[in-house]
Amino acid sequence: MSIKQIHVCDGCGKVLEKNSDSYHLNLKTDRFWNSVEMDYLEKNLEFCEFCARDIKNSLVKIANQLKTN
To answer: Strand 38-39 vs strand 32-33: parallel, antiparallel, or unpaired?
Structure first.
């Protein structure tokens, strides 16, 4: 038996057919001491083109609001 791995948009759940269809967002926190070594929290997300554009537009609006304040 073989295993097939699929990629799904983290925004809308659409199946991403090709690697070129996906847009990646990598979020990391600042480094912190976890009682053993320096570490950070990381979250990797994949989005379809529609969700990626929506995220970009939202970030542009936030940046414009921060400029005016």
So the answer is: antiparallel
Digit-coded pLDDT (tens) for 28-63? 999 999 889 999 999 999 999 999 999 999 999 999
CB 23 within 8 A of CB 48: yes
* Distance between CA atoms of residues 21 and 6, nearest Å: 12
Q: What is the pTM of this model?
A: 0.75
Query: Does residue 50 contact residue 12 with C-beta atoms inside 8 Å?
Result: yes
